[in-house]
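Much of the work behind modern protein science is quiet bookkeeping, done one molecule at a time. Below is the pair of lines this work produces for a single protein:

***
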Amino acid sequence: FKASILARKFIFVGEIKWVADTMKKFLIIGHRWDMDIHEKIDFQSDTIERDFWQIVPDKGKLHAPSGIDYFVFNKGLWRNIPDFIIGRPGFDNWLIWKARRRRVPVVDATKAIQVVHQNHHFNFHNLKQDPKIHLEEEGQSNSRIHKGRILNILDADYTLFNGKVNKKADYDFKIRNLHRLPGIYPEFAILIKMYRRIYKLFFKPE
């Protein structure tokens, strides 16, 4: 590997280390950049590799928060995972729900880690259309398993940026979180909804 490739790998590992040094348990997720790529890219070339990453914000499109393509977590975090079909909708969103349910910090690393997903057709594995939009049998199977117990990147309660892990504390997130908590802890749904009403009444953004 050339220095540029190793440097990017060290950046990825380095960002993860910031989280690992801060938390005993964690789940790191983030948005991906969807991008049309029609030619081979020689990442062994420092110049080509550098130019590629520089054009991503202009040529790529940040994917919706419902799609999570990578997960980083500490060893032993997951004990029993249901029989989801990997690569079909729902299983990734359930992982976020489960982490929040277990009070494991979920860290959004979008601003720290840049990930590119090459746009492609869906004419493979008997798929004709985007399985996230048109649920086929395997997607429906996942849906029956998670039963709506799903979250997305916006429900991460921490962020990673400039080597710092920060807990989300803005008003918009707090309100969103108060709407999600009954689904995470249904046994406390009534109390959470009561608190949410009080919070909205007495705590408003300046």
Residues 1-7 have pLDDT under 50 and may be disordered. The two ends are 51 Å apart (CA to CA).
